[in-house]
Each structure stands twice: as structure tokens, then as C-alpha cells.
Predict the structure.
Amino acid sequence: MMLKKFAMSLVLVCVLAMAASAPAAEKSSNRKTGSQNSSNPMAPEFGPSVVFDRSDGAVQLSDLRGKMAVVVFFQSWCPICNTWSPELLAQMDKAFGDDPAVALIAIKVDGGTPAEAKAYLRSKKANLSKWIVASDTGGLYYQRVSGTDKLWGYALIDRDGRLVERGDAGSFYPEPTGKRFALADPKLKQKAHPAPIFAADQDIPAELKPAAHAAEMGHLALALRALKSWEHGKTKDAAQKMRTTVLDNLAARVTNASANLQSDDPEIRYDAFHILVAMSALSDTPAGQSAAAALKSLKTDKTLAADLGNDQRAEAAFWGMLSRSTRLEIQQRKAQLPIAMQQFAAAFTGTSYAERALNEAETIAAGQLAE
């Protein structure tokens, strides 16, 4: 009974809370709400429903900029899927597991913990060192991305964090020797145009490969510390060269993000703000100091500062709405969440999260029609 009451009041509670905190939108009324760089929407960030193993640390899609991210959504209970999933995982391991341009992400959507997700993948002979693994409470993130709760699905995300493609993970090309899975096709990279930090043919000493992997997965501070520790003996020159490469990459990110702060597109603008905040934490690097200076300069642009403040309030309200929705049963959420997102967008018009909420509401609603 309590759950039913919660479901019925989800929209009202969300909108009332947002209305109380929603800022005036006059200063942003002349902003464009569509993407100026691509017709593809930004892929949703993982949010409160996606849980990572504590030993691995949490990952955000924004950490993986420059990469092609292949997200596989799986359900472990399906007997038929379990007959072909080992071959799918093996082919993906072989095609992309050692490719610095690609991030492989596996998310369990049928309940359980990240440890259980890992145990399932391990039982199917997946090489866990090549995968980022998580669980998705109630399959909420899967629903936000695909609009469905099909057994196995995928999302392909490009180097700028945009959702390029989604579909059934089990799709394959029949061949005389067996199935060739579409998700293991190297041509996928042509859709995502990845640009990794380190070139695929760069000769990286074995001792430095963990640091290179950390850098590619967005753990930049860890990578820089590790490379610094190897700047001696036979690895000195390689470590110094790699550290310079990482620092140059960071500098380019900060330059690009600083320019994108002036974008008329709310998504691009707020994404740039997030990148600068993350980079500013690397305060002992020139890029980190430049990011901090760019953020400090916002004080002189009151209109931009107000827009970003609106985005921050919208972001907090959006994550709150999603956190509450994880307590709903899937079918209740399918009916309630699109309405809540549409009303959220109306309350926070002109912000990046208004656009994202509308995209996700459309995705979920379309998934219902397709069922």
C-alpha cells in the first residue's frame, strides 16, 4: 500500500519540490536547447541506480571522453542467453579488450550486487580486467537509455559522450564457423570516432600498462602518480614521455572545455563546467591550475554564472527524482517517470537537464509503445 501511494504521488512530489527551488529562467530564455554539434543526444550519466564494486571505484561516462564506450546490459537468469553469452564476451574481449580507444562496460540489470555481476561474467569466462562492471538497481539506467527491459541490450557511446546507437546485444552475423556478434565488429569504432590518450601502436612497457589503463579509464590523478613513481631506471624515459602525453591531453581538454563554456547549447555548456571542475582537482598540474582559473573567471560573467547555477539546481533535483523512482516497481515506474520528467523539464526550462529529461521521457514512452 505504501508503495502504491508513493507511485501515485511521485509526480506531484517531484514537481512541488522543483517548483520551490526552480530559478527564474529569464536570463536563459534566449539559449538554444538543441545540440549544435550532433543530432545524437548526450548519453545519460549512470546516476543513483548504478552501483560499482567499492574496490574498483565509481566511474562516470564523463571520465571516458575520447573513448568509444560499449555498454552491455545483461540479465543472468536467461537460459537461452547463457548459451551464447560466453562467445559474445569472448569475441568482445578479443576485439576491444586491449584497445585503449574502447571502454567495455557490463551492467547487470536483473537484481544483485556488483560482486554477483562479476561472478556471472567470470563464470562465462570474461576477462574482468578488460571490463568495467556494475549492477543497476531495478534496471532504471537500462530503462533510461533504451526504454525497455529486454533480456540483453547495449548502448554505443561516442568520444563526446553522445548516444550513437542502442539495440539487442545478441545480434549476430551467421557464418559457416558460427556466430560473429555485431558488438565485436571493429567497424563499430567508425561510428564513435574514438581518440584515446595513447596510440594503439605505442610501445608501453609492461610495468607502465596499469598506469596507461588508469589514464584511459579516467583515473588521471592515479595515473600521473604511478607514472611519476616509475621515472627512474629503465622505465624513466618511457614514464616521462607517457606523463607528458597525459598532461598534454589534460591541457587540451581544459582548453576545449573553457571554449565550450560559451556555447549556446545548455548540455555542451554544463558538460564543459563539469569537466573543468574535475580537472581543477588536479591542482598540481598546469591543466588543473588553468581549469581553476577558468572557473574563477565565471565570477565576472554574471549571466553565465546564473545559467550554471540553474543547471546545478536542476541536476540536484533530477538525481533526487531518479533516487525516489528506484523504489518503484518497474511497471509503475514506466508509467510515472515519463510524466515526472516532462514536468521536470517544464520546471527547469533552459537547463541542460530539461533537455535530457525530455529525451529520456521520450525513450521510456517509446519503449512502452514497442512492448
In short: The beta strands are 50-52, 68-74, 102-108, 131-136, 153-157, 163-168, 172-175, 178-181. The chain has a mean pLDDT of 86. The chain is about 50% helix and 10% strand.
